[in-house]
Specification:
- It holds the Pfam family tRNA-synt_2b.
- Its EC number is 6.1.1.14.
- Keywords: Aminoacyl-tRNA synthetase, ATP-binding, Cytoplasm, Ligase, Nucleotide-binding, Protein biosynthesis.
- The chain folds into three domains: 269 residues, Bira Bifunctional Protein, Domain 2 (BirA Bifunctional Protein, domain 2), CATH 3.30.930; 81 residues, Herpes Virus-1; 106 residues, Anticodon-binding domain (Rossmann fold).
- Strand 13 and strand 14 form a beta hairpin.
- Helix 2 crosses helix 12 and helix 5 runs parallel beside helix 7.
- The chain contains 17 helices and 24 strands.
- The protein has 495 residues and is α+β, with helices and mostly antiparallel strands.
- The strands form seven sheets. A seven-stranded mixed beta sheet has the order 4-10-11-17-14-13-12.
Length: 495
């Protein structure tokens, strides 16, 4: 019998992620590099499974969405056209006493959260609205005045001795070329979307795609964040899963609403509970958008953005057309209400963009479970990862009761027979109870116990991770029974 799950802190989650091979600090033997992380042997499996689920949900479930893999390095004019060179900035403010640097908007958002927690939601909304107005007007002096008026102090020095607010460009730059004098300035891409936009016509023509259609991509992006924090939530090197959906102008809001609902279904399908998800409409729109909403997840540090859905208008394609002098138009042969072809136009775009690292963190936080099991003297705390079986790094573990009397050889043969269908491990080290616990801690949904009865009738015991219940099944049934539960199809059928 289990009791309600215990409350988990972010530090508990970070410690578990490192101890069980999910996430390591990068370059740890050299004391690490701030806001850069490496995925360990179990973490890379979980992250790859999440990426596979997203990729299949986009390209396998939709006949009109295809994928690409664009280069990280792009011509520098790409970022001029996109607005990143001139406008990809965060408002930065320093505390003169602590010498610590902060994002001005995050300080104000933190104050708004305090108001919300105190039951003053209207005050919080008013503060966010005023911040949005000042940032839209690029009134940085007004932003500083607002921080002071709200009595916001540095969490380290506890003083309000603030510098002026300054804009800080987030792009990493480097040089390309074999000789320093002949090299050219280029950037590490701050987003993956532009690789899709510059390939819009390549994909449309070679794939004979008709509007509406989408292009999906998974790839690394890089941002020189002022304040990188909260584990893998905000990093300087991260991975995005983006889909740009090209539509006829005037239909973008219909598609925007449709993709909002479709993407929310995805997050529920991978196992995130509805009560920990919500939409958050943007107070301040990006320069390219006419509508924007975030799907937020309730992390241990509060509700935060996990995915953004944006109506980007024709901003990107139009700017690329103007700067490159290459037409980025689509000829629409379908007839309008007057019976005439829609003709040439620059499509509008609806974007869905989810951070692979943030989705990983949300999934890991949600799965990390501590609960009390047993009664009286037998009561103890149990920790396990309640991952969707299709996402678990290891799907099944084969555990012989003992190493002797042929049980080990039988177990190895069973594990080998399952490996071509799903990721299976064999473990005969230590007491079987401890082996169950080892698999629980990394989220393995099924443990297969090989005992003396197995040698008599070719049956084994399957132990289910979440309930700890056990059932006896024939070895011949294992591949189909477990394979069904761990199939990616179990996720896709719920989208």
């Amino acid at each position: 019998m289990s009791k309600p799950a215990l409350t988990n802190s972010l530090q508990d989650i970070i410690s578990h992620a490192k101890e069980y091979g999910f996430v390591f600090p990068s370059s740890e033997i050299y004391d690490g590099l701030q806001a850069v992380y490496d995925y360990g042997q179990n973490g890379v499996e979980l992250k790859n499974n999440l990426k596979t689920a997203w990729w299949k949900a986009m390209t396998q479930l939709h006949d009109n969405i295809v994928g690409i893999d664009a280069a990280i390095f792009m011509h520098p004019l790409t970022w001029k056209a996109s607005g990143h060179v001139d406008g990809f900035n965060d408002p930065m403010i320093d505390n003169k006493d602590s010498k610590k640097r902060y994002r001005a908007d995050q300080l104000l958002e933190g104050k708004a959260e305090e108001y919300t927690a105190a039951g003053e939601a209207e005050k919080a909304q008013a503060l966010l609205a005023e911040m949005g107005r000042l940032l839209s007007a690029e009134d940085l002096a007004g932003v500083r005045d607002l921080i002071i008026a709200e009595n916001i102090v540095c969490p380290i020095s506890k003083t309000a001795n603030w510098t002026e607010v300054r804009q800080f460009n987030l792009m990493f730059s480097t040089q390309v070329g074999s000789v320093a004098e002949d090299s050219s300035l280029i950037y590490l891409r701050p987003e993956t979307a532009q690789g899709i936009f510059v390939n819009f016509l390549n994909v449309q023509k070679t794939g004979r795609m008709k509007i509406p259609f989408g292009i999906a991509q998974i790839g690394k992006a890089f941002r020189n964040e002022i304040v990188a924090r909260q584990f893998t939530f905000r990093m300087r090197e991260f991975e995005q899963m983006e889909m740009q959906f090209f539509v006829r102008p005037g239909t973008e809001m219909e598609w925007y609403s449709a993709w909002k609902e479709t993407r929310m279904k995805f997050h529920k399908a991978v196992g995130l509970p509805a009560e920990k998800l919500k939409f958050h409409d943007h107070e301040k729109l990006a320069h390219y958008a006419n509508a924007a909403v975030d799907i937020e997840f309730e992390f241990p540090f509060g509700f935060r953005e996990m995915e953004g859905i944006h109506s980007r208008t024709d901003f990107d394609l139009r700017n690329h057309q103007e700067l490159s002098k290459k037409k980025q138009q689509y000829f629409d042969a379908e007839l309008d209400a007057n019976g005439k072809p829609y003709g040439n136009y620059i499509p509008y775009v609806v974007e869905t963009s989810v951070g692979a690292d943030r989705l990983f963190l949300a999934t890991f936080c949600n799965a990390f479970t501590k609960e009390t099991v047993g009664e009286g003297e037998n009561e103890k705390e149990r920790t396990y990862l309640k991952l969707h079986p299709a996402l678990a790094p290891i799907k099944a573990a084969v555990l012989p009761l003992v190493k002797k009397d042929g049980l080990a050889e039988k177990g190895e043969a069973i594990a080998q027979s399952l490996k071509s269908s799903f990721r299976t491990v064999y473990d005969d080290g230590g007491a079987i109870g401890k082996r169950y616990t080892r698999q629980d801690l990394i989220g393995t949904p099924f443990c297969i116990a090989v005992d003396y009865q197995t040698m008599e009738d070719d049956t084994v015991t399957i132990r289910h991770r979440d309930s700890m219940e056990q059932e006896r099944v024939s070895i011949s049934e294992l591949k189909e029974k477990i394979g069904y539960q761990v199939s990616m199809e179990r996720i896709l059928e719920n989208i």
